[in-house]
Amino acid sequence: MADKNKVSRRAVITGLAAGAGALAVNASVDANCGSCGPVGKKVVKGAKKGLHFHNADFYTNGKFNEDKAKDACIALMKYHGYPIYPDMKENLWVSDYEIGQFMKVGLAARMWKNNEEDKYMQMDIFLMPGQMLPEHWHLATEKNPPKREGWLVRHGLSHIVGIGEPNLSKDVVIPKCHMGGKTETAHATIATPGVFVSLAKVLTKHWQFAGPEGAIITESANVHDDKGVRHSDPVANKYFIKLANS
């Protein structure tokens, strides 16, 4: 992708896919150590007033409403005092991975730079309270190597999960709409503001799960593209492969 201030939907997907990337996890600072039923109110234990959302609000005639998802992301930014830059909403990328449960499995991100010439990228990730970024990993492509990346939590809390001895907190409830409530990896670093977590091993599966106040995370990485992204969940995987070939 060219070095531009504004990025296309496909470009954001590229960095995003690239971006929310491969865990199995090392922390540079010591970290403090739902089922998908009928559409309804998403209430996360411990969440404060102002961060309650209804999954139904993000769907119009059964179709994912990106504009409303972006509004919720802006609300998350305001809640945490994150600066809302010009054209912030316009340049957000949001997705429910065609699973239909945005408040349980989904993602919002703002790509700041995805420089294919010099092979670096940076973006911010926004997770709603109790939202899961689905399990995935990154392959090499014809254009780029496998993804190397790291995450700095700016606001809120994220359980950053990858390979290693299972240690998931009881606060992490994998939604039933994600592989029947399962993942292949279950070793978490509980990352709070100021905690940086890096990819421990390339090509490994990873995912995240936001705390009760959501999470805002800055990611730094080498450039990558969506053709190299694979998801454990077959619905999410089919969705991303379709995007990569569109």
What overall geometry do the principal axes of the alpha carbons give? globular
Number of domains: 1
Main sheet: strands, sense, barrel: 10 strands, antiparallel
Terminal CA distance reads 16 Å
- Unreliable sequence segments: 1-41
Mean pLDDT: 84
Radius of gyration, CA atoms, in whole angstroms: 16 Å
**Number of contiguous helices:** 3
| The CATH topology | Jelly Rolls
What share of the residues lie within helices? 10-25%
SSE arrangement, N to C = HEEEEEHEEEEEEEEEH
Estimated share of beta-strand residues: 25-35%
Q: How many β-strands, per DSSP?
A: 14
Could you say which structural class the secondary elements and strand pairing correspond to? alpha+beta
Q: Which features characterize this protein?
A:
14 strands; globular; Jelly Rolls; ten-stranded antiparallel β-sheet; 246 residues; alpha+beta
Short recap of the structure:
It contains three helices and 14 strands.
Walk me through what this model shows.
This protein is of the alpha+beta class and 246 residues long. It has a single domain (9-244), classed as Jelly Rolls (Sandwich), CATH 2.60.120.10. It contains three helices and 14 strands. Strands 1, 6, 7, 8, 9, 10, 11, 12, 13 and 14 form a ten-stranded antiparallel beta sheet that branches. Strands 2-3 form a two-stranded antiparallel sheet. The chain is globular, with a radius of gyration of 16 Å. Residues 1-41 have low confidence and may be disordered.
